[in-house]
Sequence to fold (296 residues):
Amino acid sequence: MTDILSASVRIATPILLAALGGLLCFRAGVFNIGLEGMMLIGSLAGVAGVIWSNGSVWAGFLTAIAAGVLVAELFAFASIRLRANYIIVSLAINMLALGLTSFLLKAIFQTTGALRPPVINKLPDIDIPLLSKLIGKQSIVTYFGILVVLIVRFVMRHTHVGIKIQSVGEAPETAVTCGIKTDRIKTVMLLICGALCGLAGAYLSTVTVSEFTENMVSGRGFTAFTAVAFGGSNPIVTFLVSLLLGFAEAAGIRLEIMNTGMSPSIVKMFPYLLALVVYALGTSIRNATVRRKSGG
Fold:
């Protein structure tokens, strides 16, 4: 049981990081489904940083965060400065990431398909007494993600900054009337989202595995958006949904290893089917809540 819980947490970590970034954007009124592309750019940047620093994972993380912020700045310029549609910009970011990572692999590293650093100094997993007996040793990135959950919850519920962010998302015209710089807040939330997605991508390519492969994010950005859609303004719920989605993927991998006779294609569908169910359930609950509050 500990093994599958440990795997669930590891798999959920990049989903959680990206989902928290998406949640901040959502609360500021930015509909960002470009999490997938930001993560993919971060995955390549993470491995590139490791190579350029002769094996430092920390350098990989920093490079990935910088790359994620750069992509987020592009998103902000197109959607906030130029007033382009959020969904169109998100789709463009996702498609750009697919093409750009393939191009950079060949242009900079003279390779195609995959990129593996010759040396990588992996970070030791953290052993927390009692907790490690349940979920095993985990990366420092995992515990950083949990810390971000708590920070986001505190900021949104107990600070003036959180009130401003939510007012920008829920009543932008009123926020402008009150003197709140809505464009600045949206841009900052996008930049934070880019940083978290970049780190999530680097986690995939330097912690989960030790290489970058084309399209290695494999839909995890869209899975993260499912956690955002269900969690809404609650980072704790987003965290729990991320864990559930991580568990679904871990269970699918376990079923493949056990050779149960089920088709591998069906097994691989489990996380995405669950994501679809979670998204539909979250939308239904949110609509019911809105109707109840409006007296319908």
Notes: The radius of gyration is 19 Å.
